Amino acid sequence: MDGLSLRALEPEDLDLLVRWEADHADAGLRVSPYSRAVLSRYLEESHRDFWDAGQVRFVLCDPSGSAVGLFDLFNAQPVHQRAEVALLVDPSLRKQGLGKSGLLLVEQWAFGRVGLRSLYAEVFTDNAAALRVFASSGYQSAGVLKAWYRVGREFRDAELFQRLRS
Fold first, then answer.
1. How deeply is 157 buried, as exposed, middle or buried, from its count of CB atoms within 10 A (0-12, 13-18, 19+)?
2. By C-alpha distance, which of 127, 59, 129 is closest to 94?
3. Taking 90 as the threshold, does the pLDDT of residue 2 lie above it?
4. How far apart are CA 23 and CA 61, in angstroms?
5. Are strands 118-124 and 82-89 parallel, antiparallel or unpaired?
6. Which of 30, 46, 71, 147 could form a disulfide with 155 if both were Cys (CB 3.0 to 4.6 A apart)?
């Protein structure tokens, strides 16, 4: 989709964050969803510089300015010039190429403006959609991390993807 853009989080994004984070809790990386109060505090701190905070969250917007997804850069390592990347596309808007298009915008910011050398992602091996997004976006598989995440009483594998700045 042409005309996509990234923007910073705004206070009016709180309801959207609460909804998307609650839906995302099923991904298994947290035992419970973030509360409204925690997300509100996160919004209050989102003005901090990327290198100061070690992370940034972008809202992906369609041409009309409506939020369609979130993209996170986190675990930033200034010495190693790398950060982890994660994405979330509104469940009602998936399978339209928004993840891949948004990821390209994030890469342009990370490689061009911030000067990162490497982005990486850890993706559950059973998340076919995310595996496709990263593989089709030029990320190289660096291997499978066995039993990497505990989800409930079970452990799940994650595939590690990496993209180097060209």
1. middle
2. 129
3. no
4. 19
5. parallel
6. 147
Place of tokens 């995310």: 130
Higher pLDDT, 136 or 18: 136
Confidence of residue 141 (pLDDT cuts 50, 70, 90): very high
Go through the domains of the chain in sequence order and give each one's CATH number.
Answer: 5-117 (3.40.630.30)
For residues 21 and 34, what is the distance between their CA atoms, to the nearest angstrom? 7
User: Strand, helix or coil at 135?
Assistant: helix
Please give the Cα distance from 116 to 80 (Å, whole number).
Answer: 8
Residue 47 tokens, joined: 């003005």
Beta-carbon contacts of 97 under 8 Å, excluding residues fewer than 6 positions away, are 1
The pTM of the full predicted model, rounded to 2 decimals, is 0.87
What whole-number distance in Å separates Cα of residue 56 and Cα of residue 8? 9
pLDDT tens string 81-90: 999 999 999 8
